[in-house]
Design a protein that fits this description.
202 residues, alpha+beta, PH-domain like, four-stranded antiparallel β-sheet, four-stranded mixed β-sheet, 8 strands
Length: 202
């Protein structure tokens, strides 16, 4: 005689397994397509402050050159440098930009503040990028501007902005959204192009 299985067990097996979430605010039916961060260059001020703190920590060894003062000053300099660099590192490491199949998310965190920006993919009109100056050209970072119906989201100090922009546009096209893709234009450049178009029409 065959025994019937437990209905609760069979129904539980039929349920789909919940996918692990990449971030806390992720929806159950949401799929992460792209994750990127800013260039570590955003920590440059913190690195300068940490270097100054390191030099100040070893000053006692210069005044009294003994092993005790040297190693004590070395430990103090490492501690002081870490304390000065920590806020900048936290802000860089925990600030990420996420593109899913439903929205574009900006998460920026510091020791005392958390910011969360959520933009629906259908609101995106245009994605521009700009690499300006010798520093940005040499270190391969720049600015990405996401133009939407409610305003512009400007993301500065992005590592390889041209590659990130291209990936973002491909994701939107896969979702059936076709934003414009071009390098960043200033207002004067955009105005000159508009004047040329009006002159051609006349």
């Amino acid at each position: 005689m065959t025994e019937k299985g437990d209905p609760s067990t069979s129904s539980g097996q039929e349920k789909k397994e919940t996918k692990p979430k990449y971030f806390k605010e992720q929806f159950d039916d949401e799929e992460v397509k792209l994750v990127f961060k800013k260039h570590p260059i955003v920590m440059r001020k913190g690195i300068v402050l940490a270097s100054v703190g390191f030099l100040l920590g070893i000053l006692p060894a210069l005044i009294k050159p003994t092993y005790g003062w040297f190693f004590g000053g070395l430990g103090l300099s490492l501690l002081l440098g870490t304390i000065l660099l920590l806020p900048w590192w936290v802000k860089w490491y925990f600030s990420v930009y996420i593109m899913t199949n439903q929205r574009f998310i900006q998460q920026s965190r510091s020791l005392l503040q958390i910011n969360f920006v959520d933009i629906g993919l259908e609101q995106i009109q245009m994605i521009n990028y700009q690499i300006a100056g010798l520093e940005e050209t040499m270190l391969h970072f720049g600015t990405i501007t996401v133009q939407t119906y409610v305003g512009d989201l400007v993301i500065r100090d992005v590592h390889h902005p041209e590659k990130i922009q291209k990936e973002m546009v491909y994701i939107l096209r896969d979702m059936g959204i076709h934003p414009s893709q071009r390098p960043y234009q200033t207002d004067s450049q955009a105005g000159s192009e508009q004047d040329e178009a009006e002159t051609a029409e006349s």
